[in-house]
């Protein structure tokens, strides 16, 4: 059965006028249920997680400041979010959701998190709407529990997974792959194991060609036994922050490529949402919904 992490806390309210589309976390599960892609049985509310798994990835000093709400104004500004107890609780539940979705992936082949993909969080700081890094926390959890020996992180958000790259720069058990807009945020890119910087306005054919070439290159030297997939949809032509020109059908083909790869390798895959900032919320929801439909089609 497809299992999807979701909690109302994922849609933690932000001040009016904030540009981050929190409503998508409420609308997406309703859309999936409305169209029949998922039922209530497919969703699970993440349990509380032991903070030792946060500290296994993040610096203790940073975590203490975060949970005690003592980040400086400059540190808060870099996250893009107004700091609050509710926001920190939300972030911890997202982390737990990705870990638990990965455990379901081990059982069923695929597991999903309606939130997550918080790839801009470094070990010692938050950035770009990311306070903690669920991809890194989950990868470390899988390795430390001997659930996986070699984890491949496929990050296809339009923005480079700079925090993830930094965290794993000296850990060969984790391969970080980021395919992103080369002229987009962050302006200072970290070094992933494989970075593919894309030009502005790239369209479906060239984008998918780059993706397939990159996956072939990775598998020529790295054999994963677990995949974590950051499936951001800010590569859409309509996205106000993305600057690329990939169509809705192109996003679907991208997601299908990644899921079918994991299925063919018989490697569990955990998918987390990532970014999406199209002006029309229906475009964001439709783009995100595709990966859940494909997971049902390919695995179940």
Q: Look at the helices and sheets and give the structural class.
A: alpha/beta
Oligomer: single chain
What is the average of the pLDDT values?
A: 96
Run of helices and strands: EHEHHHHEHEHEEHEHEH
CATH architectural designation: 3-Layer(aba) Sandwich
The CATH superfamily label reads Histone deacetylase domain
Number of domains: 1
Rg, alpha carbons: 17 Å
Strand percentage, roughly? 5-15%
Cα-to-Cα separation, first versus last residue:
7 Å
Q: Care to count the β-strands?
A: 8
Residue share in helix: 40-55%
What kind of sheet is the major sheet?
Answer: 8 strands, parallel
Task: Please name the CATH topology.
Answer: Arginase, Chain A
In short:
Keywords: Hydrolase. With 300 residues, the chain is α/β, with parallel strands linked by helices.
Structure overview:
This protein has 300 residues and is an alpha/beta fold. It has one domain (4-299): Histone deacetylase domain (Arginase, Chain A, 3-Layer(aba) Sandwich). Helices cover 42% and strands 12% of the residues. The chain contains ten helices and eight strands. It has helices spanning 24-35, 52-55, 60-67, 73-79, 85-108, 134-144, 162-167, 204-219, 248-265, 281-299, and strands at residues 4-5, 43-44, 110-113, 151-155, 174-181, 194-198, 226-230, 269-272. The protein has an eight-stranded parallel beta sheet with strand order 2-1-3-8-7-4-5-6, with helices on both faces. The model has no long low-confidence stretch (mean pLDDT 96).
């Amino acid at each position: 059965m497809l299992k999807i992490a979701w909690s109302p806390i994922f849609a933690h309210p932000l001040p009016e006028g904030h540009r981050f589309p929190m409503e998508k976390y409420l609308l997406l599960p309703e859309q999936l249920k409305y169209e029949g892609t998922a039922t209530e049985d497919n969703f699970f509310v993440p349990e509380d997680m032991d903070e030792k798994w946060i500290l296994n990835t993040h610096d203790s000093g940073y975590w203490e400041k975060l949970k005690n709400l003592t980040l400086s104004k400059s540190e808060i500004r870099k996250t893009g979010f107004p700091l609050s107890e509710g926001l920190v609780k939300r972030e911890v539940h997202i982390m737990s959701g990705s870990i638990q979705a990965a455990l379901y992936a081990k059982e069923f082949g695929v597991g999903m998190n309606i939130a997550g993909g918080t790839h801009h969080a470094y070990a010692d700081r938050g950035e770009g709407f990311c306070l903690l890094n669920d991809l890194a926390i989950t990868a470390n959890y899988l390795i430390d529990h001997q659930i996986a020996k070699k984890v491949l992180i496929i990050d296809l958000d339009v923005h480079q997974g700079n925090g993830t790259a930094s965290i794993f720069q000296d850990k060969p058990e984790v391969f970080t792959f980021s395919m992103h807009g080369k002229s987009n945020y962050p302006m200072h890119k970290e070094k992933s194991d494989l970075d593919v910087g894309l030009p502005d306005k790239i369209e479906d054919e060239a984008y998918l060609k780059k993706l397939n070439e990159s996956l072939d290159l990775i598998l020529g030297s790295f054999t994963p036994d677990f995949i974590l997939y950051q499936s951001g949809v800010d590569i859409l032509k309509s996205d106000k922050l993305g600057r690329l020109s990939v169509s809705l059908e192109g996003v679907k083909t991208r997601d299908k490529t990644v899921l079918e790869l994991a299925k063919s390798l018989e490697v569990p895959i955990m998918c987390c949402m990532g970014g999406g900032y199209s002006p029309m919320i229906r475009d964001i929801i439709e783009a995100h919904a595709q990966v859940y439909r494909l997971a049902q089609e390919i695995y179940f």
